[in-house]
Each structure stands twice: as C-alpha cells, then as structure tokens.
Design a protein that fits this description.
- Keywords: Membrane, Transmembrane, Transmembrane helix.
- This protein has two helices and no strands.
- With about 80 residues, it is an all-alpha fold.
- The protein has one domain.
- Helix 1 runs antiparallel to helix 2.
- The longest helix is centred in the first third of the chain and has 43 residues.
- It is rod-shaped and about 70 Å long.
- The chain starts with a helix and ends with a helix.
- The mean pLDDT is about 80.
Length: about 80
C-alpha cells in the first residue's frame, strides 16, 4: 500500500512538472504571437514591406494556433 502511494506521489509530481512546462511554452507562444501581430501591423503601414508583414502575420497566426493547442493540452 505504501509503495502504491509513493508511486502515485511520484507520478503526480512528474505530471505537475509537465503541466508547468506546457503552461510556460503556452505563455511564450501567446507573447510571441502578440508581438508579431503588433509588429506586423506596424510594418504593414509601410507599403514597401508588405510581403514581410504578411509573413509576420502568418507566423503570428501559426503561433496563436499552437497556443490554442497548448491550452487544450493543458486542460
């Protein structure tokens, strides 16, 4: 009985560590997406760099989707 309790405690500790890592990656993705989105809007203001802005907005969209997946994984 004590070995099962120890095994469950160790598994719970490992699980919570993994959840914290996923939450940290999710937060980094959200911040990156916000920065890329805001920067893309600023770059889009200059008509010369429109292809760069499109690429930045695409990257922001991709990071946003990864963030959604990370959030669902965390639940």
């Amino acid at each position: 009985m004590a070995t099962q309790r120890d095994k469950r405690a160790n598994l719970s500790k490992t699980y919570h560590r993994a959840v914290r890592v996923v939450a940290g990656v999710d937060n980094a993705l959200v911040v990156s997406s916000m920065v890329l989105g805001a920067t893309g809007i600023g770059v889009l203001g200059t008509i010369i760099a429109a292809p760069v802005a499109i690429a930045m907005e695409g990257a922001a969209l991709g990071l946003g989707l990864l963030s959604i997946v990370g959030g669902q994984t965390n639940n």
